[in-house]
């Protein structure tokens, strides 16, 4: 029997948690990764070389690879602050950027690197061009650039993307639409709603594919609200924003963590962007999605509240088993 096909869409540090747990399961995995990051090392590299930002791709590559611990440490090594032009850059970011330039595209680079690092699944940038994220706030003010969005006080009305280095309409990278259409399940998140998940979904080809796919679309709702993005949001608010951006209720299932997070536990110095636990609105969720699964998906670690990848994946596989 063929393996179930699961495509995970997002970026940041959220989806690697899910991908690590999926890696050991009997599933065919595809990761579609955002290319709108313009901060930190990724932002400097994309500006200098006009390539897609490598940071989120680096994290996904590590999550799906069986590379020995020493290789991982080399790949993740970050140059010291005293290292001049290289200061703060992870070696893996430079490697991805260099191979992207050598191969002529980030798509080609990732196909080479997935073989080199023996990854379990396939990794596709959502677009082969670096994208610029635009956020339009409810007061009409527009912020340009993913790294600047959280600095503007107010509620985001909607986001959209443009190509960073040409005037053409943003397009999906090769195989992305095909993967969405041929999947048994699409997993959105976990991750920053406006800056990790939506930058992929607002590419017109991807949004159209998500509206048309017969795959089970599952959203893993965030555990904590995020400063400058989802302050005061309930779980239903998260799903409503996704549906509004695609113009229809396309989410089939929402996974919601109901295990409480103690305010005293969170390390506000290390995780200052995360504010309070997302409020529950189950009536609102039932209006926005076909099914809601609420359970303990919590992993408390190093002063932060994260998803437990194994618990989430166990639930995802139950959904697929019922569906197939």
From TrEMBL:
Its main location: cytoplasm. It comes from the Bacteria. NCBIfam families: CofD_related. InterPro entries: CofD (IPR002882), CofD-like_dom_sf (IPR038136), Gluconeogen_factor (IPR010119). This is Putative gluconeogenesis factor. One of its GO terms (molecular function) is LPPG:FO 2-phospho-L-lactate transferase activity. PANTHER family: GLUCONEOGENESIS FACTOR-RELATED (PTHR30135:SF3), UNCHARACTERIZED PROTEIN YVCK-RELATED (PTHR30135). One of its GO terms (biological process) is regulation of cell shape. It is found in: Cytoplasm. SUPFAM superfamilies: CofD-like (SSF142338). Required for morphogenesis under gluconeogenic growth conditions. Belongs to the gluconeogenesis factor family. Keywords: Cytoplasm. It comes from Streptococcus varani. GO terms for cellular component: cytoplasm. Pfam families: CofD.
């Amino acid at each position: 029997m063929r393996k179930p096909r699961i495509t995970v869409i997002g970026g940041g540090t959220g989806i690697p948690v899910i991908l690590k747990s999926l890696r050991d399961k009997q599933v065919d995995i595809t990761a579609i990764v955002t290319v709108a990051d313009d901060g930190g090392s990724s932002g400097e590299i994309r500006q200098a070389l006009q390539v897609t930002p490598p940071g989120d791709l680096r994290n996904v590559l590590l999550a799906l690879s069986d590379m020995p611990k020493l290789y991982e440490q080399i790949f993740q090594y970050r140059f010291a602050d005293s290292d001049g032009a290289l200061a703060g850059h992870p070696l893996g970011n430079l490697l991805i950027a260099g191979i992207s330039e050598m191969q002529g595209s980030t798509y080609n680079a990732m196909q080479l690197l997935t073989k080199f690092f023996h990854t379990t699944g396939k990794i596709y940038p959502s677009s082969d061009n670096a994208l610029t994220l635009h956020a339009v706030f409810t007061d009409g003010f527009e912020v340009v650039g993913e790294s600047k969005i959280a600095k503007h006080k107010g509620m985001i009305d909607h986001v959209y993307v443009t190509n960073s280095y040409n005037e053409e309409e943003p397009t999906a990278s090769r195989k992305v639409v095909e993967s969405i259409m041929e999947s048994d399940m699409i997993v959105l998140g976990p991750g920053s709603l406006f800056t990790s998940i939506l930058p992929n979904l607002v590419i017109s080809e991807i949004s159209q594919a998500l509206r048309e796919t017969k795959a089970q679309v599952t959203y893993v709702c965030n555990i904590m609200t995020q400063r400058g993005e989802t302050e005061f949001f309930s779980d239903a608010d998260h799903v409503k924003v996704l549906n509004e951006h695609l113009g229809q209720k396309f989410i089939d299932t929402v996974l919601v963590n109901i295990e409480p997070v103690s305010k005293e536990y969170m390390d506000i110095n290390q995780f200052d962007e995360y504010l309070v636990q997302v409020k529950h609105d189950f009536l609102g969720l039932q209006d926005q999605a076909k099914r809601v699964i609420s359970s303990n998906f919590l992993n408390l670690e190093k002063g932060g509240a994260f998803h437990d990848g194994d618990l989430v994946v166990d639930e995802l596989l139950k959904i697929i088993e019922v569906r197939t």
